[in-house]
Write a structure and sequence with these properties.
The protein is an alpha/beta fold. It has twelve helices and eleven strands. The protein has a seven-stranded mixed β-sheet with strand order 3-2-1-4-5-10-11, with helices on both faces. The chain binds 6-O-phosphono-beta-D-fructofuranose. 6-O-phosphono-beta-D-fructofuranose binds at residues 12, 73, 103, 127-129, 171-173, 223, 245-246, 276.
Length: 343
């Protein structure tokens, strides 16, 4: 008898989700699967909100940003009775296995459903933050960082005309991968990451030197950078216990600090959610398609409780539990590499 597979996308959207959906459905058709999509992430499973999905729905979506299945940051483990509703709906819609496409949060739920409730889950990793363990890259990151590099270079052009120091604030939450790659690729003069306590004095001294030589200087700052003034500020948390950083304004705060300490005019810009929209890059399309297809293969093989990862150039199945156990953060080797270019 043909299997009916549930599929959903959860958490912050990013380019590559639609290719992943296409990969899973197209390869699933080869295995004779039918699909039931739960819309709006875990909220769709809790509330039993579905839409049919088949060949026609995925035939031309690899080029599209966002997710045709919609998303939310719902955590069923945080809502009384919601997990039971998930289990009931899996029965009601006759779901044999569930493909969850998401980051640490969404896949954390998939892990618990597998470990604690024996649901046949397979995870597909996504996030522009690139902070999932167990995989070298997540789709969404390449597009988001490429867009940020473009923004950074545009900032340098205008900064150069006005002899200013420019600050670009990028997303990434608790991990600095986007800031790191953007800063290195766009030849920033300083990069600030959540993983490293900022040395404001040292940064400002260096910015003065760089500005004197080039007539402009660029700082790329991750939104999660812990400036000294944030030490005692209580930050709002989401349903998964993560800081909501949208109102913090690290870019603006930094530009003020830099201006104060260097005496050089400074401006800041926030790329924000623009980084999450638009068509996926070639890399994110191919990665999304590959991990999506691998998820359908894992279902066919009964290889549950696994996440489809890219290691080197190969797609491989890793334990969901291990992948969601801890975040992948920027390490000292990378920081040292970035500092090579502070001249
Ligand atoms: O996790 C992806 C991400 O874009 C983070 O970089 C950012 O902090 C967060 O999502 C923003 O979330 P929201 O879209 O809910 O404002």
């Amino acid at each position: 008898m043909s299997k009916n597979i549930g599929i959903l996308t959860g958490g912050g959207d990013c380019p590559g989700l639609n290719p992943a959906i296409r990969g899973a459905v197209m390869r699933g058709l080869d295995h004779g699967f039918t699909f039931t999509a739960f819309v709006e992430g875990w909220r769709g499973l809790v509330e039993g909100k579905t839409r049919p999905i088949g060949l026609v729905d995925v035939q031309d979506i690899a080029k599209l940003g966002g997710t045709i299945l919609k998303s939310s940051r719902t955590n069923p483990f945080k809502k009384e009775g919601a997990v039971q509703k998930c289990l009931d709906n899996l029965k009601k819609f006759k779901i044999d296995a569930l493909i969850a496409i998401g980051g640490e949060d969404t896949l954390g739920v998939a892990t618990r459903l597998f470990e604690e409730h024996k649901v046949n889950t397979v995870g597909v990793p996504k996030t522009m933050d690139n902070d999932l363990s167990g995989t070298d890259f997540t789709f969404g990151f390449d597009t988001a960082a490429s867009l940020a590099v473009d923004a950074a270079e545009r900032l340098k052009d205008t900064g150069s005309s006005h002899l200013r120091i420019m600050v670009l604030e990028v997303m990434g939450r608790h991990a600095g991968w986007v800031a790191l790659y953007t800063g290195i690729a766009a030849a920033a003069d300083w990069i600030l990451l959540p993983e490293q306590e900022p040395d404001i004095e040292k940064m400002c001294a260096h910015l003065k030197v760089a500005h004197a030589r080039k007539g402009v200087a660029l700082v790329v700052a991750s939104e999660g950078t812990e400036l000294p003034q944030y030490k005692d500020v209580k930050q709002e948390l989401d349903q998964f216990g993560h800081m909501i950083l949208k109102d913090r304004g690290v870019g603006d705060d930094l530009a003020k600090l830099i201006e104060e300490k260097t005496g050089i005019e400074a401006r800041s810009a926030v790329i924000g959610h623009m980084q999450r929209g638009g068509p996926p890059t070639l890399f994110d399309r191919i990665l999304g398609l590959r991990v999506g297809a691998a998820a359908a293969d894992a279902v066919a093989a009964g290889n549950f409780g696994k996440m489809m990862a890219i290691r080197g150039t190969e797609i491989t199945a890793v334990s969901l539990k291990e992948a969601t156990g801890k975040l992948k953060l920027v390490d000292d080797k990378w920081i040292k590499f970035a500092e090579t270019f502070y001249k």
